[in-house]
Amino acid sequence: MLNLWLYSLLGAVIAILAALANSSLRRLHILANLASLIIFFAFPFSEAIGFLSRQTIHPTLAALSPLKPLFWLIPLGLSLSLLGLRFIKTKKVHALLSLLTGTLNLCLIIWWFQGQTILSTLQPLNGLMEIVTGLILALVIILIGWSYPKQRWFIGLLALAMGLAVFFALNSPRGHGLFPNSQGYYKVFKEAPSGSEAEIIASYNAGLDSLNRQRRTIGLGGLEPITNLKALDGQKLPREAAEAGFRLIDPQSRGYGVWLFFLLQGLLIGLGLMLFWKPQLSAHGDMSSGSVFALVICALTPAFAATEFSFRRLVEGWPFLLSFLDRSWPPLLADAAFERFPLQEVASQMLLTLEIALVGTFLAAIFALPLSFLAARNLSQNNRLMRFIFAITRGFFNVDRGIDTLILALIFVAAVGLGPFAGVLAMAIHSIADLGKLYSESIENVDKGPIEALESVGASASNVVRWAIVPQVLPLFVSWTLYRFEINFRVSIVLGLVGAGGIGFFIQEKMASGQYNQMVIAIIAIILVVNIIDFASSWLRSKLI
Hints:
Layout: H1 2-20, H2 25-42, E1 47-49, H3 61-64, H4 73-87, H5 91-113, E2 118-124, H6 128-145, H7 152-170, H8 173-178, E3 187-191, H9 196-206, H10 208-217, H11 239-243, E4 246-250, H12 256-277, H13 286-306, H14 311-316, H15 318-328, H16 342-374, H17 384-402, H18 405-416, H19 420-444, H20 448-456, H21 461-495, H22 503-512, H23 516-544
Antiparallel strand pairs: 1-4, 2-3, 2-4
Helix pairs in contact: 1-12, 2-4, 2-12, 2-13, 4-5, 5-12, 6-7, 15-23, 16-19, 16-21, 16-23, 17-19, 18-19, 19-21, 20-21, 21-23, 22-23
């Protein structure tokens, strides 16, 4: 519990620092309330254990509310606090609502953590995730089209139609076949029927002899009979109970929503105290900015959890890093006795990497140049055919840019075999879209004066392009190409790791064989070459623009 209190203290400190810096406390108030509401409905708080690991569920506070109805006071208090900001003008009331809301929420969660293990049953809410998905799509369409006032009715109807279409598609047997986890994904927990715990305990004890025989065959000790489910001490529920829909909820287990919730409640308490001191701290646009910040925080938190970000694991891996550095230095430049010449090999592979990037960039520029004129809006809106070509070209750019170079490299390695040719193909195809988009946007931003002057004297379209557009965009084209070459050189290093040749392949080979004192030569060479390319490219761009 101590670390959770530290999170609450950190939230209060943030509120104090914001007040001292004369920042908008109202914005932070909105952020804390909205983020806490999202956590209540969407973030895992505890762990509900089944028999198999895939049967373990991490319920939210909303999912636990049927077991603990007092939890509904949390969204109620948060909603009242938000509504108070909108409809109540007295700043002292805002401060009081913030202070009371944060304190009440912390008390409820601490009360939950002090509880005993609970046997519960699952109640899937079928169709809920399908509805949420449809609503999110409809909301996105409305937000995108809100800047077009004359089309808002049409956009609203389109959003409604698309939302309903997605809902019915996902809620159909076909949709559940494609996304089986979506059916009943959100589950609430109810108290198990009376007598269920005794039946599960009796069933567990009856099968204990067979279980212990299996454990002894693999060298594990035997288990003792239990008198209550808490005595399972972290073990799984019996298979029959888990398959019947029972789950064992441990209030002491904590999901990633807990620490953020404590942080935000500490922030609310700190804001309440600071608002009594400085009630005037607010700014224009607090509602929108606070909402955006809340969404960002609530998007980042599960992302950190999904990527298993942990400073503790980094500390645990620190000995390997020290061992790696120790075995990497000094670099082995050459070993004539065993006919090993790593420095020479690095130089050769580095040259090959540069050549892969050079050829890939050159091919991309050759194909992107004519396509960019077709993808420029100001040159392709004169007739329907050109508008159609414009849409096709822009669509190709978007599709091509969506396929990463590494994926293309894997495909071409399978098609043409290992080696630099696969890397060149992957790099060239992906770079066509990137350069084409940059080239076309440069064309769209040219000065219209020279174009109109040539058109007024009856110049042909080719002459307009040759004398009015090309002189303006050519320096930019060269600059974008040089910039893309810098990127492609870095990309070509990664492509080598999947068999596309170059210095990346050398690094992979030496890393796999534990020859770190040779691999470090390649790392040093990459750092030097990257800096040389950056300086040279920057100097050339400064001369061109």
